[in-house]
Amino acid sequence: MSWLPLLVGLAAPPAYLDPGSGSFLIQLVIAGALGAALAIRMSWSRIKGIFRRKESPPSDSEKHGE
Amino acid sequence: MGSSVRNGASFRDPSGFLFVRDGTLFRQVNQSYRPTFDLLEHSGLYAELVDDGLLIPHTLAAVPAAEPEAASLVLRPDPLSFISYPYEWSFSQLQDAALATLEIQQRALGRGLSLKDASAYNIQFLRGRPVLIDTLSFEVYREGDPWIAYRQFCQHFLAPLALMSRREIRLGQLLRLYIDGVPLDLAVRLLPWKARLNVGLLTHLYLHAASMRRYAGAEVRTAQGARRVTRTGFLGLIDNLRRTVAGLRWDPGRTAWAEYQTMHNYTPVALEAKRRLVVEYFEQARPSSLWDLGANTGAFSRLASERGIDTLSFDVDPSAVEANYRTVRASGEANLLPLLVDLTNPSPAQGWHHAERLSLRQRGPVDAVMALALVHHLAIGNNVPLPQVASFLADLGRWVIIEFVPKSDGQVKRLLAARDDIFSDYNVEGFERAFNGAFELRRREPIAESERTLYLWEKR
Question: I want to staple B319 with a disulfide (CB 3.0 to 4.6 A). Which of B119, B126, B131, B258 is the partner?
Answer without folding.
Answer: B258
